[in-house]
Amino acid sequence: MGALLALASALLYGVSDVVGGVVSRRMPFVRVALLGQAGGLVVTAAAAPFVAGASPSAPDLLWGGLSGVGTGVAMVALFRGMSRGAMSLVVPVSAVGGLALPVVAAAVLFHERPGPWTWAGVLLALPALWLVGRGRSGSSPDARAVRDGLAASVGIGVQYLALAQAGPGAGIWPVAAGRVMAVVCVAGLALLGARRATVKATPATLATSATPALRLAAAGSGVLAAGALVCYLLAARTELVAVAVTLSALYPVVPVLVGLTLLRERIGRLQVLGLALALAASALIVAA
Question: Most buried among 4, 37, 59, 277, by the most CB within 10 A?
């Protein structure tokens, strides 16, 4: 059950990235991140009291808050990269780092010992995520996009690792606490960026009159991301962190599949290989 929840997390995160990436090209990326985290906060805070047996302790909320700091940093970096039109590069870079950091930390700090098949799936997932994000053009990567992806990967790694430390009796309150800190973090980064004049956007995204539909879509991307974290939190309570993180980190597969099925896009051979490796990695971990 935990593995299926982690895969559901990947699906929700992937759809969230597609929606957020499209919207971030039409309005400032910081606003997209802020609206998204606010939307996630409203939904999780409304749902948390109705989760049976939820009684969070102070450490549970602190771990959730730390995960929210990671989320805030990750979303700003991710949407900044995608606003530059580098979705196919930023998303897989963020996923590879976001997978590797928690898995290594879980093994070193928390002495998790996954079985050989699980390790095989983890190691297979790393090249799979990278290949999925490789385009057909073979053009050299944008250094700024790589930096955005690496920054997002650190935030995602903190998000996953911290959230997994919350106790099973906390319900989904750690996710709600994380959304509070994510809103604070994104707002702080927005103010810092405005003061240093580093928040830049294309002419299309500089328009201040975002339509209600765009604002709703931005908030919806955050609701989907919050749902993904709830699924991940539940998965981490029944699976090793390495397993939950690896399966949840397969979210870059979703944008590729959306482009292939809904947008009728053609994908390259490397992406086909990446999809096959991602499927094999999932099968190894689920079957372990």
Answer: 37
